[in-house]
Amino acid sequence: MTTRDRDYQQMMTALGDVAKRRSTELDNAEQAYQTSAAQAAGELARAESDAAAAERWAGAAASQVLDVDREADRLWAQLRAGVRTRALGELPEPAPVEALPRPALTQGPAPAQRRSARTLLASAAQRIEVTARPRERHRMPRWTLALLPLAGALVAGLTALIAAGLVTFGRRDVPGVVVVQLLGWLAFLVAPSAGLPVAALYAHHRLHSRLDLGGVGLTLLGGMLAATVLALTFATSSQ
């Protein structure tokens, strides 16, 4: 084999190696392109899904803002219709975000302690319903009418006992006895009607009813009898 043949054979071998490397690099480039295209398609699909979710969230948030505004307008109108709230003006505009201090924006309550706008409006509606427009209360049950004199007598008796203790203590030779005796006699005066607030609160919160005129009379009757008995007993024992 001549020198020319050996050179030709080496050149063909080198050309074959170059062709193999080119084919390998083309295959690698094609694979990288396919992988990159698949990743780009996946990222595009995720981006489109996130954009659609953001649009749905924005639409729901806008609808919720409109609902909250309408409910706030309704509650404000209901509050203005109250007996003691006729001097209220128009519904104030919400404070812009730019006017709020930065700590109020960055350091809010914890998510577990944060209440939604609907919850706050429901709480405000309940308070307005109780204060501005109290609901109608039914009459007290009949079985409670027999307990009203006993309740009035019990509270009046406790008040009269406290009054007797103050008057007795005021007879000692200590500073301020005049004030103590005055408080004792004032307690004697209010003892017959001391059961009325207790009975009214119990009827309001427990029975969801209203203490009518008959209930007031029965409570006063029991209180007057108990206070009279204790006052006579105290007057007799002090002689």
Could you walk me through the main structural features you see in this protein, from its secondary elements to its overall organization?
- It contains eight helices and no strands.
- The protein has helices at residues 3-80, 102-106, 117-131, 142-145, 147-170, 177-190, 195-205, 213-238.
- It is rod-shaped, with a radius of gyration of 44 Å.
- Residues 94-113 are annotated as: Disordered.
- Residues 94-105 have a biased composition (Low complexity).
- The chain crosses the membrane at residues 143-170, 182-203, 215-235.
- Keywords: Membrane, Transmembrane, Transmembrane helix.
* Count of spatially separate domains: 2
Task: Report the biggest beta sheet as strand number plus sense, adding barrel if it closes.
Answer: none
Question: What structural class do the secondary elements suggest?
Answer: mainly alpha
The shape is rod-shaped
List SSEs in N-to-C order: HHHHHHHH
C-alpha termini separation: 156 Å
**What is the helix fraction of residues, given as a range?**
over 70%
Number of strands: 0
Report the mean per-residue pLDDT as an integer.
77
Number of helical runs? 8
Radius of gyration: 44 Å
Report low-confidence residues grouped into runs of 5 or more.
Answer: none
SS strand fraction: under 5%
Transmembrane segments: 143-170, 182-203, 215-235
Biased composition (Low complexity): 94-105
Region (Disordered): 94-113
Keywords: Membrane, Transmembrane, Transmembrane helix
